[in-house]
Amino acid sequence: MIVGSDGLTRCFWPGVLPDYLAYHDDEWGRPVTDDHRLFEKLCLEGFQSGLSWLTILRKRENFREAFAGFDFEKVARFTEKDVEGLLGNPGIVRHGGKIRSTINNAQRAIELCEKEGSLAAYFWRQEPQPHERPDPVDYPTLIANPKTEISTRISKDLKKRGWSFVGPTTVYAFMQAMGLVNDHIEGCACRAKVEDLRKALRRPS
């Protein structure tokens, strides 16, 4: 835990960096049911592989511009010419495999929506139940090395459906950020706020 200059106690991982603190306080763990935001986060977690999330966070607006606001209906139509343009874009992570993976995953997202109703319905259907959630004392470990049986199961299912760059660690980091679990550490000023939002959330069917 850390105590900020504002006197609030928070999870340790954002440190004292203003943009990271804002992400921790205003986004991380708050439940999301918007398909484009869910797709965005899963893709950005894939881009983050081997890098720090802070690097991706600081490039996020560039990613949004480059990938049509992560509207997967549009991204699914990207061509090799678009890939070449993205590989020349200094504002994003220029990794050919991850760029092509995002386009592939956009196509798979359309298929998943056709079968499951929406990305939100698919992911929230797999929200861990109370007895499946980790003990609060394990949250620091999960933040440092996020991976659970449920994230492993989702990862395997997505890969079976043709998705890529969706390993169990990537999926659990996505679950933490999108509010499918509340991994703010006990004592963090944001934990109760996030839990209230989760309780009030109407789960997509």
Automatic annotation (TrEMBL):
Highest rank taxon of the organism: Bacteria
Organism: Nitratireductor pacificus pht-3B
SUPFAM superfamilies tied to this protein: DNA-glycosylase
GO MF annotation list: DNA-3-methyladenine glycosylase activity; metal ion binding
Leader peptide range in chain numbering: none
BP term (GO), one: base-excision repair
Binding locations of Zn(2+): 11, 24, 184, 188
Swiss-Prot/TrEMBL keywords: Metal-binding, Zinc
Protein name in the entry: DNA-3-methyladenine glycosylase I
Pfam family, one: Adenine_glyco
Metal-binding listed as a keyword: yes
Keyword Protease: no
Entry-linked Gene3D superfamilies: Hypothetical protein, domain 2
InterPro entries: Adenine_glyco, DNA-3mA_glycosylase, DNA_glycosylase
